[in-house]
Specification:
The protein has 15 helices and 11 strands. It is an alpha/beta fold. α1 runs parallel beside α11.
Length: about 350
């Protein structure tokens, strides 16, 4: 592996040129930082992290919705990382400490099992990108108990990328696309970025060789004057994706617009529950309404980090007030968060 990585780096150096490559995957950022991949690349080849952490992208409004339900006595189930993601004024961890019934689960199926055992209303906060949405859809299609509902916080990667490209803030030249998302949606939803904007793209896996190979493939496209979607992760990703999973999502969800953390409202970027399954939609079931949302804690630049225009090391709170044990911003909470990863592997 060492000799192969050295050979790929040498090939990168041969065709290197100034380029800003964005990835949108917490696992990619983890691999890049853990293995020092940025230090292996020529200085003119810049790889920046975008909104690749599904926990980090959940805005304060959706945390506040969960807190509102907790106040009504609803049992809240969610992934462990979500407990410390900041809402406007509080977190689910703080609500749990104050007596709310907030439970950590490994997935939606675990939440359904809890609902089957309780007389109380049980809500699952279903966060995640296209990767986890099919499991949520499958449970609703299977017919969960009447006391079960979900708060859909599922987000779609391609609309966020389109927003970033069109905003011009990042000035990105190429994209490394997330392999796990592509296993579900395939490569075709990314094609418009190459066709319309002339952006070279590579769908990549998650080990160091995958990342290095993706960078090389992008540089080779630029050298050859091409802009297309190439699939480095052929061992897991097909062009058409997972058709069965896509059908389940289409049956249960419709696509609408909502804000992301650090972003304004992104058009057509989130999944919401269709009317046919409204009895399992917590927003409709409990008539949730959240107003006056304060998005970011004072001094936190998580939004800029998620948009790829800043690095954690540029934040005044990083490694000082903000640490994994005491996260101020959402990007420090999850192990897929850019700040959390930088805390563990950055030498600055």
């Amino acid at each position: 592996m060492k000799n192969l990585s050295k050979e790929i780096v040498e090939r990168i150096e041969e065709i290197s040129r100034p380029v800003k490559i964005m990835h949108v995957c917490g696992s990619h950022e983890h691999t890049i930082m853990q293995h020092g991949i940025r230090t292996l690349l020529p200085e003119e080849v810049e790889v920046v992290a975008g909104p690749g952490c599904p926990v980090c992208c959940v805005p304060a409004r959706e945390i506040d919705e969960c807190l509102q339900l907790a106040e009504k006595g609803v049992t809240i189930t969610t992934f462990g990382d979500m407990l410390r993601v900041p809402g406007s004024e509080s977190t689910l961890a703080e609500a749990k400490a104050d007596g709310a019934d907030v439970r950590i689960v490994y997935g939606v199926a675990n939440a359904v099992e809890i609902a089957q055992k309780l007389d109380n209303e049980v809500m699952f906060m279903s966060a995640g990108f296209e990767t986890t949405a099919p499991t949520t859809a499958s449970e609703l299609l299977a017919g969960p108990p009447e006391n079960f509902s979900i708060l859909s916080c599922h987000r779609l990667i391609p609309p966020a990328l389109q927003f970033l490209i069109e905003s011009g803030d990042v000035n990105l030249n190429a994209l490394i696309e997330p392999g796990h998302v592509a296993t579900i949606i395939g490569t075709r939803p990314f094609e418009t970025f190459s066709e319309k904007y002339g952006i070279p793209q590579v769908v990549a896996g998650f080990n160091p060789l995958d990342i290095l190979m993706a960078v090389y493939m992008i540089l080779r496209q630029i050298k050859d004057g091409k802009a297309e979607v190439q699939n480095e992760y052929t061992r897991a990703v097909r062009d058409e994706g997972n058709i069965k999973a896509q059908k389940a999502m289409e049956e249960v969800f419709y696509i609408t617009s909502r804000e992301w953390r650090g972003f304004p409202k992104i058009p057509d970027s989130v999944y919401e529950v269709r009317d046919e399954f409204s009895e399992f939609d917590a927003r409709k079931k409990f008539d949730i309404e959240v107003k006056d949302v304060k998005e970011a804690p004072t001094g936190c630049i998580c939004g800029a980090i998620l948009r790829g225009v800043a690095r954690p090391e540029e934040c005044k709170l990083f490694k000082k007030e903000c640490t994994p044990m005491n996260p101020i911003g959402a990007c420090m909470v999850s192990k897929e968060g850019t700040c959390n990863i930088a805390y563990r592997y950055s030498t600055l």
